[in-house]
Amino acid sequence: MSQAFSHRVLPYDRADDLLDGALPFLREGIEGGDRVLAVTTLAMHMLLRDKLGADAAGVEFFDSDRWYAHPARHLADTLALAETAAWQKRRLRVLGEPAWARRGPAERSEWQRIEAITNAAFADTGAALLCAYSRTLPAGVVAASRQTHPETTRGRATLPNPGYQDPWLYNARLDSGPLPPAPDDAFDLPIDVPDLYWIRVYVTDFARRTPLPEDDLQRLLVAVTEVVTNALRHGRPPIALRLWLEPGELVCEVTDRGHWTERTGFGLIPPKPAGGAGRFGLWAVRLLCSLVQIRTGRDGTTVRLRLQVPGVPAVPPINLPVNSV
Fold first, then answer.
1. Domain residues of the chain, as ranges?
2. Secondary structure class of 153 (helix, strand, coil)
3. Could you report the per-residue pLDDT of 13-63, keeping only the tens digit for each?
4. By CB neighbour count within 10 A (0-12 exposed, 13-18 middle, 19+ buried), where does 57 fall?
5. What is the pairing mode between strands 6-12 and 151-154?
6. How far apart are CA 206 and CA 153, in angstroms?
7. What CATH number matches the domain at 6-174, 3.80.10, 3.30.70, 3.40.50, 2.40.128?
8. pTM, to two decimals
9. What SS3 state is found at 19?
10. What confidence tens digit (pLDDT) does each residue in 68-112 have?
11. How many CB atoms are located within 10 Å of the residue 51 CB?
């Protein structure tokens, strides 16, 4: 792929500002034979189609809410499109408007993490990504976009972002702060022996007293098995599993006293076919869960898995027996 990868932010105040930067970007791709995608709102789709006229036939339109539904799956799917286009001697070109509305602080951080890691994951694909950010978004979201995108687009002009940060350093900074402590009423299961069967039974008993769908329960069990196996193989005792509910979420946490020294994103980038099994495991866990939070240091390692459960109250379902396994 002769073209260099580019990842730019397009801040805008009004729709005209977005069009001033987006239209030249899209037209360049149409004329160059790229695979061109516009991932925005329905209202912006209509404006873009009107301005592009007949050229709109060369653009594939997608809805932002669906495209940006899950961080790891979004990264995997878009990366697959970029690699396929590169194999076809074409370039993937995406105008994207990330869906920030209704996301809480933890979700926003995870999507900012994805924006940063995109610069490492797509480096060899030759793709061109232009991310539109409305200035009506929270100030922290707009400011972070200048740290996660090497360049800013204004109209036809492109300027380097002096605040841009190396993606791995950016991710390390996100993970430098502690997670909120588990609640006092969390169900706590000390893991003294490697009996994965009873661990899965324990998680199943808890989850089935919540509205968690059966498919999501199966995903949770696979993710928990992977994380507990990693703790047993590579961590240090004591190892514990905790379960609790938060508004709209089921949370499962695995802790041990080991300290991970791996500093390449803890499974944030899809592994290559020849990649190591450990990296694949963490990547799979990210695909299976709504959100994965990892903290590691001298005091030990915490892996916190979150699955969305709409309507779930922040109270325990019932008392479960607390026995070591």
1. 6-174, 187-308
2. strand
3. 999 999 999 999 999 999 999 999 999 999 999 999 999 999 999 999 999
4. exposed
5. parallel
6. 49
7. 3.40.50
8. 0.88
9. helix
10. 999 999 999 999 999 999 999 999 999 999 988 888 888 999 999
11. 14
